[in-house]
Amino acid sequence: MKKIVYLLPAICLATLAMSSMSAHADTLNLAPYVGQTVSMTVEPYASGENNGSFYVGLTQANFSQNGSPLGSLEAFCDDFNHEITVPATYNVTVQAVAGNTTREQEAYYGMLFGSTPSGNTALDTDIQELIWNFSSPGQYALNTEMTTLQTQMLANYQSVNYSGSFYLNAGDGGQSFMTTDPSPVPEPASFALLGTGILGLAGAARRKYFQA
After folding, report:
1. Residue 159 and which of 107, 108, 194, 204 are 20 to 30 A apart at CA?
2. Which of 212, 211, 210 is nearest to 7 (CA)?
3. What span is annotated as the signal peptide, if there is one (predicted)?
4. Which residues contact 203 (CB under 8 A, 6 or more apart)?
5. What is the mean pLDDT of each successive set of 10 residues along the chain, which is 212 residues long?
6. Any idea what DSSP says for residue 65?
7. Cα 53 to Cα 21, 130, 164, 178, 203, distances in angstroms
8. What angle do CA 38, 72, 122 make, to 5 degrees?
């Protein structure tokens, strides 16, 4: 997310919001809104997961249209080139992911986050940085774990159903996000071993703020 002051407390939603997160993934079907503009409020990252500079992984996004609440979903940032300060509310255009190769590849990675924040900062950092490399090519060099994830994605993304994945295009009016249905991509057992090479990264912020 856009610049979130590093000295702020570990950000986060209240315990009540945390306890209800598991429901957010299925509270809203965005398919009827494809091509339409909706209002999106991006909440602070309840997990506090970060790569040392920016928040990574899932956060809650609340949607409304013409002042009427639509529901909430877990979403992830796929836009490295724009910044926001959370909580932030702005308009986005809902776009289908299916049929767009780049978006499908991003969504495949996003599905690996699961349906709620995992707490696995090392793995989520690898996934998030791979996603950010689409909007900012070469921003993050690939470590061994990221290379493994990339190889897996390229071998499998074309066989996944993206009907439950949507791109939330903010243009230059905010930061674009994506929502996915993680069920098509089961978590490989080997994922437990990924990301171990950067476990200490989260404690060494390179900047004075975090960004999604």
Report:
1. 194
2. 210
3. 1-25
4. 52
5. 36 31 60 99 95 96 97 97 95 98 98 93 97 98 98 97 97 97 64 44 37 56
6. E
7. 25, 15, 30, 21, 9
8. 110
